[in-house]
Design brief:
binds pyridoxal-5'-phosphate, disordered C terminus, four-stranded mixed sheet, alpha/beta, seven-stranded mixed sheet, about 40% helix
């Protein structure tokens, strides 16, 4: 042991203790997912004396359950059987395999763009996309929504150019910032289509109008919308007929598409420049064929099938409806995200623990810095594979936890049910789901 080891270690344990004191030390749940039983999974408690048991996951970002879709499993199994485990190199040095080239074509087509470029995660695609685009524009000014995701903020930092922040979804503020700049100056507006903690949506058309009026470039993060919105799963820009009005669309392969990876799609020149300059793309090994083939299978399925989207929206609406009717403080929003507000880190953690221990329901507490202090919450994400029986259990369990912890109820609210379009009636999507319900 080096004489200094103790001194070094003291810094790390002090840093961790600080998080514990602030009640924001993260504890991970060890879950064994099973594609055929999702959203049921096997939970292994940290204490080895406690035996593993089944829990129902209500906070997965595998929003549509595509990670376990039969088409996706078949594509992944086939790809690993044929191509083996890895990619064999970086994109430049022997790692550009056909499945990733096909995936990039699939993504360009999804967003009706000339080209797309795949990265190892959505986080990396924002870091690389934003920093490279902004640093290639002379004297670029980045104008960023106040609630943009950490990966976008890291991209801005790395770009090293001037930055201004507009109030969340505040187009009047955005316009003031744009109007104060010379028309010829390069300006890059960064925003998300769907903000994943409150579940609210950006005024995309108004932002596109301002970009046109003031000669700015637009970059949108559609991570929480791709696969889930639009006739082919192209996100909110597709749903609103705005894909051609946004310059760069960024997305993930890890949420609605159930796999791993991220991407940008845009004009051929922009994508080629990022491909050529971004170190986060150049100096790292390509995603393997097994992963890219499964992502592509999910995208292809969701381009032609509306079943998963319809059932997803139906379950999200049914969940909000049921929780509100029980007098629980759901934050209203127009999306599939169901935030249940608690407003205190320790009580949020206690509610999550009690749901798991007493009711075998897993909902991770969301605390600062993911959300602002005082807006701690349980973030519930219903999927097409949750059944009405799962939902009934959830409501009963949460009501019990609310009583046990003496959390405030609201007066019961009745949410008007939006009917899905007749052509997209919710159907039982997966053969496994029928089994699960039996
Ligand atoms: C999750 C997330 C990302 C990162 O995507 P990954 O594929 O998980 O790395 C980017 N942007 C937003 C808004 C996200 O929520």
């Amino acid at each position: 042991m080096k004489p200094n080891d103790k001194a070094y270690n003291a810094h790390f344990s002090a840093a961790v203790q600080k998080l514990k004191d602030e009640k924001r030390y993260r504890v991970f749940a060890n879950l064994e997912r099973n594609a055929y039983r999702f959203p049921t999974a096997l939970w292994r408690p940290e204490d080895p004396s406690e035996s593993p048991r089944d829990v129902t996951i209500w906070c997965s970002n595998d929003y549509l359950g595509m990670g376990g879709h039969p088409d996706v499993i078949a594509a992944a199994a086939n790809a690993i059987g044929v191509h083996g485990a890895g990619a064999g190199g970086t994109r430049n040095i022997s790692g550009t395999h056909n499945p990733i080239v096909e995936l990039e074509r699939e993504l360009a087509d999804l967003h009706d763009k000339e080209a797309a470029l795949v990265f190892t995660s959505g986080w990396i695609s924002n870091l690389a996309g934003i920093s490279t685009i902004a640093s290639l524009l002379p004297d670029c000014l980045i104008i960023s929504d106040a609630l943009n995701h950490n990966s976008m903020i890291e991209g801005i930092r790395r770009a090293g150019c001037e930055k201004q922040v507009f109030g969340h979804n505040d187009v009047a503020h955005l316009e003031r910032l744009l109007a104060a700049q010379p028309r010829e100056r390069a300006k890059l507006i960064l925003f998300e289509s769907l903000y994943s903690m409150d579940g609210d949506m950006a005024p995309i058309a108004e932002i596109a109008d301002l970009a046109e009026k003031y000669n700015a470039m637009t970059y949108i993060d559609e991570v929480h919308a791709v696969g889930m919105y639009g006739a082919r799963g192209g996100g909110l820009c597709e749903r609103e007929g705005l894909m051609h009005r946004i310059d760069v669309i960024e997305g993930t392969l890890a949420k609605g598409f159930g796999a791993l990876g991220g991407y940008i799609a845009g004009k051929a020149e922009v994508v080629d420049a990022v491909r050529s300059y971004a170190p986060q793309f150049i100096f790292t090994t390509t995603l393997p064929p097994m992963v890219t083939a499964s992502a592509r299978a999910a995208i292809r399925r969701l381009k032609t099938s509306g079943e998963e989207r319809a059932r997803h929206q139906f379950m999200a609406m049914a969940t909000k409806h049921a929780l509100m009717a029980a007098g629980l403080p759901v934050l209203e929003n127009p999306s599939h995200i169901v935030p249940l507000m608690i407003g205190d880190a320790a009580r949020c953690k206690a509610a999550s623990d009690l749901l798991m221990r007493r009711h075998s329901i897993y909902i991770q507490p969301i605390n600062y810095p993911t959300v602002a202090i005082g807006s701690e919450r349980l973030r519930i994400t219903p999927t097409p594979r949750h059944t009405e029986a799962h939902l009934a259990d959830l409501v009963e369990a949460i009501v019990d936890v609310w009583r046990e912890l003496d959390l405030p109820f609201t007066s019961a609210r009745i949410l008007p049910m939006r009917r899905p379009a007749p052509s997209s009636e919710p159907a039982c999507v997966y053969p496994q789901m029928r089994n699960a319900a039996e």
